[in-house]
Amino acid sequence: MLSSISGNGWALLGAALAATLAGIGSAWGVGLAGQAASGVVTEDPSKFAKVLVIQLLPGTQGIYGLLVAFVTLSQFGLLGGNAAELPVETGLMVFAACLPIAIVGMISAYHQGKTAVAAIGIVAKKPDQFGKAMLFPAMVETYAILALLISILAVTSIRV
Amino acid sequence: MSKNQYTYAVARIRALEVALFSASVIEQLMACKDEEACLRFLADKGWGGADVPLDADAILAREKEKTWETIGEMRVDMEVFDVLSYADAFHNLKAAVKEVCTGKSGGSVFYEGTAIPKEEMMRIIQEKDFAALPESMREAAAEAVDTLLHSGDGQLCDVIIDRAALEAMLEAGRRSKEEVVRDYAQSTVAVTNIKIAVRCARTGKSLEFMKRAMAPCPGLDVDRLAHAALAGESSVMDYLREEGYEEAADALKESASAFERWCDNRVIRAVQPQKYNAFSAGPLVAYVIARENEIKTVRIILTGKQNGLPDDAIRERIREMYV
Questions:
Q1: What pLDDT was estimated at residue B152?
Q2: What averages of pLDDT result for each successive group of 10 residues across chain B (323 residues)?
Q3: Running DSSP on this structure, what letter comes out for residue B318?
Q4: What residues in chain A have per-residue pLDDT under 70?
Q5: Which residue in A38, A44, A114 is closest to B8 by CB distance?
Q6: Is A106 strand, coil or helix?
Q7: Number of Cβ within a 10 Å radius of residue A75
Q8: For residue B228, which of B14, B135, B174, B239 is within the disulfide window of CB 3.0 to 4.6 Å?
Q9: Does the beta carbon of A98 lie under 8 angstroms from any beta carbon of chain B?
């Protein structure tokens, strides 16, 4: 069955996975942090702005996945409807290039969500430590950015 | 319930922990010159409420209610809190057994808000319908009724029910998936065993009596503890030092109230690691224990001020705070 997938099909699958898996991870992470943020705001609405910023941190992986999907689709003309027929080998290369942000995006967003929950706990007790609290979930972002870089570099360096 | 489902509740508890009394707030309360000033201080801190009179019992009762109202709002599995309710539930059983068997009504104080209300508890004991009690109470209730009716020994009746309460607590700890419940149960039972040993050493109780009263628990050899108590209070202190309870021995040497304070402090220390846990029911249980400890400490201060005790005497009884 896999042998019947065309080069364009593989490229499309890679773009779809980048957007989907990274999006799932972000939904998980933002949802988890959102629960914690709601808990804090229930007792102290004045902390809304601070906990909202932390809640949004795991949302970036979804954006990175979307970005890689866009770059992939436009690189090979899949967006404008004038797509060139890609050989299967090229399609598989595009697919592989999309995997870093798809996989790392999903896992890092989930863990960033959990770290964001703990950081929201810091803000709940010590709002003046907001800057430091933000840094802990932000560290997880590093790995999503590395995966984004590799995916973008790989997708843009594949010649049609 | 998945651990992640405590995320909302734990974050809410973190926000509430800010309002818990720290040692410095307790010092401010201590600095109030009399009970009335203390009550005004508490009212300024949000204790009691608009519809609660400026009265110690009313304010403290309302604070206890507030804690359970907050926990109730979180819609979490209440089973994890069972271990905290055993002391009140078994006390009510004891009170009902005494009232029914001695025929003297109104002599005992019942706690409110327990799973089995006072009237139902009285009915169960009167009709000897022990099957209506939770499993952990049945055997002890039947034995206590039998003992009190046949021998009239109220102390033995207390020992039977108190021992059952300790065993129920340990069993709840063993069954629970929450580390905090296990730690709390073990700590409470160990501390209670030490209290029993100290009291028995002072009153010269027999080895048999002590073994009946103490519940075997991890971290404490009750057999050795009972033998130490038989030899006297200083032997209990030596045993405690050997087992790593140096602070207990020192407190015991200092005074009875210092020892009582150590007992409560040990329980609070057992739950303190929950301050750094974000994904389980642990911080919720720890918060309830912390609130109870806080209310108890405030009650000690208010009672001390009411009776004109010197500050040093009150300070000796003040418990360690959770935050």
A1: 86
A2: 78 95 95 93 93 92 93 88 90 92 77 86 93 93 92 90 95 90 92 93 92 91 93 92 90 89 90 90 94 95 93 90 90
A3: P
A4: none
A5: A38
A6: helix
A7: 18
A8: B239
A9: no
Query: How far apart, in whole angstroms, are the C-alpha atoms of residue B59 and residue B29?
Result: 15
Spell out the domains of chain B, with CATH numbers in brackets.
1-77+281-323 (1.10.132.50)
Q: What share of chain A is helix, strand, coil (3-state, %, to 5)?
A: 90, 0, 10
Structure tokens at B233: 């209070």
Helix (H, G, I), strand (E, B) or coil at B142: helix
Q: For residue A12, what pLDDT is reported?
A: 94
Structure tokens at B93: 């059983």
Question: What is the distance in angstroms between the Cα of A118 and the nearest Cα belonging to chain B?
Answer: 6
Q: What pLDDT does B115 receive?
A: 86
**DSSP strand E in B165-288: where?**
none
A99-117 burial, b if ≥16 CB within 10 A, otherwise e?
bbbbbbbbbbbbbbbbbbb
Q: Give the closest-approach CA distance of B85 to chain A in angstroms.
A: 26
How is residue B217 annotated by DSSP?
Answer: B
Instruction: Please indicate whether, in this complex, the C-beta atoms of A124 and B279 are within 8 angstroms of each other.
Output: no
Sign of CA dihedral B198, B204, B210, B213: negative
CA dist B40 and B254 (Å) reads 33
CB atoms near residue A125 (< 10 Å) = 16
DSSP A26-65: HHHHHHHHHHHHHHHHHH-GGGHHHHHHHHHGGGHHHHHH
Measured between beta carbons, the chain A residues lying within 8 angstroms of B279 are: 114, 117
pLDDT of residue B107: 64
Question: A45 and chain B: CB distance < 8 Å anywhere?
Answer: no
For chain A, which residues make up each domain, given as ranges?
22-157
CA nearest neighbour of B219 among B185, B258, B175: B185
B14 and A125 in contact by Cβ < 8 A?
yes
The token pair at A56 is 């949004």
Helix (H, G, I), strand (E, B) or coil at B129: coil
Are the C-beta atoms of B140 and B161 separated by less than 8 Å?
Answer: yes
Q: What is the pLDDT of residue B178?
A: 87
Beta-carbon contacts of residue A115 (< 8 Å; ≥ 6 apart): A136, A137, A139, A140
The answer as to CATH 1.10.3720.10 being correct for domain A22-157 is no
pLDDT at B1: 46
Longest Cα–Cα distance of chain A, Å, equals 59
CA geometry: angle at B12 spanning B11 and B13, to 5°? 90
pLDDT at B262: 92
Question: Integer distance in angstroms from the first to the last C-alpha of chain A?
Answer: 24
